[in-house]
Each structure stands twice: as C-alpha cells, then as structure tokens.
Amino acid sequence: MYKEMNEWKHIFKLDPAKEITDENLEKLCESGTDAIIVGGTDNITLDGVLDLLSRIRRFTVPCILEISDMDAITPGFDFYFVPMVMNSTEKKWMMDIQHQAIKNYKDIMNWDEIFVEGYCILNEEAKAFRKTNCELPDTDDVTAYAFMVEHMFHLPIFYLEYSGTYGDAQLVRQVKNELNNTLLFYGGGIENSQQAVEMKEHADVIIVGNSIYTDFKNALKTVKAVK
C-alpha cells in the first residue's frame, strides 16, 4: 500500500461533524482525487463516522479514517491514519493515547492498513492546536521535527497542518528538503487551484478540507490543478 501511496497527489478530507449533500459527495468521490480522509477535531461520533463511511463506500475511491477519538473507531475503512502531534507540549498526544489504543485493539489491528503520521500543527487559532496543547514552532523546529519523523521514528508520513489558514510555501519547501523516504502531506487553507499548485510544488500530497464546505466549486477544481 505504501508504494501505491507514493503515487498520490491529492486527498479530500471530510469532517463527520459537518453536513455534505449526496450530490456534492458524489462529485468529490468521482473527481479523480486519490483518497478521502474522514476526520476532524470536535464532535466526532461513531454515528457520524459510520454515516460518512456508508455513503463513501458507494464509490471506489480509497477511504481513510484519521483517528482522533477512540470511541469513533470502526471497521470498514481501507486505511487508518494515527496522528502523533510532534509539537504538543503533552506526551499524551504523542504517546499516551496511542499506547491506550494498542492496549485496547492490538489483537485486531491489521498493520497493513495502519499508517502513523508525524503531525505538526502550525495555526495557533486552530481547534486542534488548542486541543492538543501545542506550541508554535519556528522554522528550525519544524525541519527538525521532519528529520525526527523520518530518521528517528521512521514514520511514513509527515503532515504539516495549518488547519483552515493558508501556510508558508517556503517552509513547506524547506521541510521537503529534509525528507527522502517519508511522504510530506500539506493541509490548510487551500481554496483554489493556484494555491493547490503552489503547495503541491513542494508537498507530495495536498489535503483539501475546509473549502469543501465554504467554496465547493473551487475545492473541486483543485484535483485537476495538481494532476
């Protein structure tokens, strides 16, 4: 699967706590995007996750659950992404929650379907930043996190998360220069094709999320822009 992921360029991210029509969901799933991530920060329930899963499953696009709440974990997804928040000030968000998940679920976990992400959250106003008690890193910090993710933890993904605001393309470029084997995912504030192309120039995969709910037509255009 990781070899297949190396070919990916674009992912849509859907929040199970937000509404999307069947018509728009079909357009996303049939757009040519490489995958759909189901994930969010607030009000994530098993019912909400199951509802989105059942609707996405009508299409052939790969479906990923990004785990933010253990109570909302369910079988049926193609893959599961497990975040480790590198710039959190609490060990809880890097190790303790993951440790508890292993205790609870290790006997049924299929590691061919599970990928751990080194997460770095770079928007102080983001709910995820506050929830995980992050501190804002400078450029040297971020590139060091990227180096750690690849060389110390050997994780398959390093995710730069600006969560709703458009990030610094030059920082994305610098981070990419630190990575040889780990894939660089970028998410945050991509609202149009121009921004998609700019971030895709450096990131391996761009994630488009919030604009699905604020400017659907332009969000949809980001697929063709980078492929």
TrEMBL record:
<dbReference type="InterPro" id="IPR008205">
    <property type="entry name" value="GGGP_HepGP_synthase"/>
</dbReference>
<dbReference type="InterPro" id="IPR039074">
    <property type="entry name" value="GGGP/HepGP_synthase_I"/>
</dbReference>
<feature type="binding site">
    <location>
        <position position="13"/>
    </location>
    <ligand>
        <name>sn-glycerol 1-phosphate</name>
    </ligand>
</feature>
<keyword id="KW-0443">Lipid metabolism</keyword>
<dbReference type="Pfam" id="PF01884">
    <property type="entry name" value="PcrB"/>
</dbReference>
<keyword id="KW-0808">Transferase</keyword>
<feature type="binding site">
    <location>
        <position position="189"/>
    </location>
    <ligand>
        <name>sn-glycerol 1-phosphate</name>
    </ligand>
</feature>
<comment type="subunit">
    <text>Homodimer.</text>
</comment>
<keyword id="KW-0460">Magnesium</keyword>
<dbReference type="InterPro" id="IPR038597">
    <property type="entry name" value="GGGP/HepGP_synthase_sf"/>
</dbReference>
<comment type="function">
    <text>Prenyltransferase that catalyzes in vivo the transfer of the heptaprenyl moiety of heptaprenyl pyrophosphate (HepPP; 35 carbon atoms) to the C3 hydroxyl of sn-glycerol-1-phosphate (G1P), producing heptaprenylglyceryl phosphate (HepGP). This reaction is an ether-bond-formation step in the biosynthesis of archaea-type G1P-based membrane lipids found in Bacillales.</text>
</comment>
<comment type="similarity">
    <text>Belongs to the GGGP/HepGP synthase family. Group I subfamily.</text>
</comment>
<dbReference type="GO" id="GO:0120536">
    <property type="term" value="F:heptaprenylglyceryl phosphate synthase activity"/>
</dbReference>
<feature type="binding site">
    <location>
        <begin position="159"/>
        <end position="164"/>
    </location>
    <ligand>
        <name>sn-glycerol 1-phosphate</name>
    </ligand>
</feature>
<feature type="binding site">
    <location>
        <begin position="209"/>
        <end position="210"/>
    </location>
    <ligand>
        <name>sn-glycerol 1-phosphate</name>
    </ligand>
</feature>
<feature type="binding site">
    <location>
        <position position="15"/>
    </location>
    <ligand>
        <name>Mg(2+)</name>
    </ligand>
</feature>
<keyword id="KW-0479">Metal-binding</keyword>
<keyword id="KW-0444">Lipid biosynthesis</keyword>
<keyword id="KW-1208">Phospholipid metabolism</keyword>
<keyword id="KW-0594">Phospholipid biosynthesis</keyword>
<feature type="binding site">
    <location>
        <position position="41"/>
    </location>
    <ligand>
        <name>Mg(2+)</name>
    </ligand>
</feature>
<dbReference type="GO" id="GO:0000287">
    <property type="term" value="F:magnesium ion binding"/>
</dbReference>
<dbReference type="GO" id="GO:0046474">
    <property type="term" value="P:glycerophospholipid biosynthetic process"/>
</dbReference>
<protein>
    <recommendedName>
        <fullName>Heptaprenylglyceryl phosphate synthase</fullName>
        <ecNumber>2.5.1.n9</ecNumber>
    </recommendedName>
</protein>
<comment type="pathway">
    <text>Membrane lipid metabolism; glycerophospholipid metabolism.</text>
</comment>
